[in-house]
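User: C-alpha cells for this one?
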Amino acid sequence: MVTTTPRMPLMTSAGSSQQDPGQLQIRLTDPRIRSHDRPTQEIPVCRDRTEPSPPGATCSTRSSSSVRSLFRTLGLVGMVCNGSAIGQPTAPRESDYYEVTPLPTPDHVSLEVGGLARDEDTVYVATRRGEIWTIRDAWGPKPRFERFADGLQEPLGLLLHDGWIYSAQRGELTRMQDRDGDGKADRFETVCDDWNISGSYHEYAFGPRLDPSGNLWVTLNVPFGEEPFGSVNWRGWAMRITPAGIMEPVCAGLRSPSGLECSPWGEFFYTDNQGEWCAANKLSVLREGSFHGHPHGIESAKLPESKVEYPGELPDGMLMAEAAQTIAGFQLPAVWFPYDKMGRSPSGMVWDRTDGGFGPFPGQLFVGDQYAASLQRVFLEQIEGRWQGACFPFRRSLGSGVIRVAFADSESLWVGLSDRGWPSVGKTTSGLERVRWTGKTPFEIREMQARPDGFHLVFTQPVDPTTAADPESYSLISYTYELHSDYGCDELDEQSLSITSLRVGDDSLTVDLTVSGLRECYVHELVAEGVRSAEGLPLLHPDAYYTLIRRPR
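Assistant:
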C-alpha cells in the first residue's frame, strides 16, 4: 500500500530516519507501488479501474523492475534509489510543455465524466450519475452549464451524429434530440437493446463509436460478482450495430473494455484492464472474428448471430506466443501497457489529428489511465499485417482518474475525470481539465520502430552524438506474460538484451540500435537514461515499451 504523510521521518535503506521538514515524505509499506501526493490514503495493488475493492481484499505478489523505475513513472524524480533524499523535481518538467487547467464547475454540477463530445464551441459531457450537460464558452470568463438530459443509467460514452446525441447505457444504445430548441432533450429513441444484463454492478456498456460504413460499435463489460437476474449472453463482446439497429456480435474475450475508438484508417481499437484472463493492460485491434482471451462469454459464440468461432475450453496457464498459435481466433494485443510502469487502468483514447498543433506527435494515440490519473502516448506501425508498437509516458499528475479524452481544439485536449468506486491517485474526485501544448518541444523518443536486427529511434530534437552512441546510455530487457485465470501476471521469462552496435543519423534525430536476442510476442523495455539532447537536456521520459508481435523480415 501507499501512505503519504507530511513532515514524517523517512527511513533510509539502513533503517535510520532523516527529518526534512521542507519536504513531503513518503512511507512505502509496499515498495512495488509508486507514491503520490494525495492526502493519506490506502489504495490496493491489484484492483482495476472499474472494480471497487471489497473490505479485506488482498493482492497477489507482483514483480517489478526497480523502485526507481516505479517512482519515475509517477514523476517523483527526486527520489534516489537508497531512499536517502527526496529533492525538488528536476528540469525538464512535463508542465513546461503541457500545462493542465481545470474547468471551474458550479456547485450543483458533479462532472463524474463518462462521455465527452464537442460541437464547435459546445462541450457535451455525460456523467456516471446519468446526466448529460452542455458547456458553452468553456474557457471564457463565464462558462455556461445546462443540463441536456438526465435519468440515464451510467452512460459511458457520447457521440454526435446526424443531429442526434448517442450514448451507451447499461441495457441499450440510446439517441437523444432537442426538437424545440430549448437546450433540453425531448426525444429519446432506443437504437438497440438486444443485449441483456444480469444485475451485476459491473456490467457496463461503453460507446458508441462510428465506423466508415455507418455502423455503431459498443463494448460490453463482463460481470464481476453476483448476477441476481441470472447469467446472460454476450458479456465481454464487442458489438457492431447496423444503421437498421441490428446487433452483430463481432469480437469476444474482452474483460473491462473501457476505451473504444475508430482509427483514422477505419479500424477499431479498444483498451482493456488487467485482471483474470487479462495478463496486463492492453490496446488491441477489434477485427471481426477475433477472440481476446477472457472466457466469460465464449458460450455465446455457439449462437447463430456470432461472428466468432467457438475457441473451446481455455488452457489455464500458457505463454502468450503459444496461446496465439493454439487457441482458435486468439489475438495478441497491439501494445501491452506494463503494470504500474504505464499505469494500471487504461481508459478512453484519441488520435492526434491536429497536424502538429498539439506538439511533435501527430498521428499518434493518447490513452488515459484511470488509476494513475495520467495520459500515455502510443506509436503504432503495421508489420506483416499486424499492428504493434510502443507506449510512452506522456502527462501525469492530472486531477483525478482519466475516463474520457477528446480534442478541444488543435492545441489542447479535454480530459474527463472520475474516481467514484474506481480508486485514483489524483487529488480531486471528478471534473474536466484541459491539457494544452505550450509551444515548447520536449526532448522525447518520438517513435520506436522495429527493425529485423533491432530498433530505430526517432527523437523530437537533435541528440548529443556522444551520449546517443554510447551503449551505456541504454538498457534493454524483454519479457512476456501468461494467459491464466489468476488476477494479472508477473513479467515472465525476462532477459537482458545486448546492444551490439549503435548508429546516430546524419541529422542527429535518429539512432539505430542493433540488438541481440529480439523475441516475437515479447515486450521490449528500453530505458535511455543516459541520452542527452544537443543542448545537454535529459529525455523528459527515458522509458519506452515496444510490443514485438512480428519481427520485420
